[in-house]
């Protein structure tokens, strides 16, 4: 995972590791969005090295429905805890994977 310290990496195709991270936060994402998703497939991601790792992940949740997730994974010595920080809903495949905050705003 080629991430820049301080900044997000370029967008890359999702890996098995990213899918596992996304799977771990699915219930949190559904709770934040207030609905269940038909599917939950990681499409692409960007990563950022911080005290741990931040991920921005584009996830397909239906035929032409997408969400963007902002996920934080703590350092191994802190338990490698995975937490969903924010979700943006109602997106399409063409929406760019830009950084956003917990309120869903850029």
Shape: globular
Count of discrete domains = 1
| Radius of gyration over all CA atoms, rounded | 13 Å
Mean pLDDT: 91
What is the correct CATH architecture? Answer: Roll
Main beta sheet: 6 strands, mixed
Distance between the termini: 24 Å
How many strands? 6
CATH top level?
A: Alpha Beta
Keywords: Cytoplasm, Protease inhibitor, Thiol protease inhibitor
GO molecular function, one term: cysteine-type endopeptidase inhibitor activity
Subcellular location: Cytoplasm
InterPro entries: Cystatin_dom, Cystatin_sf, Prot_inh_cystat_CS, Prot_inh_stefin
Describe this structure in words.
There is one protein chain. This protein is α+β, with helices and mostly antiparallel strands and 106 residues long. The chain has one domain: Nuclear Transport Factor 2, Chain: A. The chain contains 1 helix and 6 strands. It has one helix at residues 16-33, and strands spanning 4-5, 12-13, 41-50, 52-60, 66-73, 82-91. Strands 1, 2, 3, 4, 5 and 6 form a 6-stranded mixed beta sheet that branches. The protein is globular. The two termini are 24 Å apart. Residues 3-100 form the Cystatin domain. This is Leukocyte cysteine proteinase inhibitor 1. Belongs to the cystatin family.
Structure described in brief:
This protein has 106 residues and is of the alpha+beta class.
List the main descriptive attributes of the protein structure presented here.
single chain, 106 residues, Nuclear Transport Factor 2, Chain: A, 6-stranded mixed β-sheet
């Amino acid at each position: 995972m080629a991430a820049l310290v301080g900044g997000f990496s370029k967008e890359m195709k999702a890996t098995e590791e990213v899918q596992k991270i996304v799977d771990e936060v699915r219930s949190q994402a559904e709770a934040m969005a207030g609905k269940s998703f038909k599917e939950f497939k990681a499409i692409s991601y960007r990563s950022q090295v911080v005290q741990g790792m931040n991920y921005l992940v584009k996830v397909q949740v239906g035929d032409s429905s997408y969400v963007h997730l902002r996920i934080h994974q703590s350092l191994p010595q802190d338990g490698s805890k995975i937490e969903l920080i924010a979700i943006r809903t109602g997106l399409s495949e063409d929406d760019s994977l830009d950084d956003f905050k917990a309120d869903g705003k850029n």
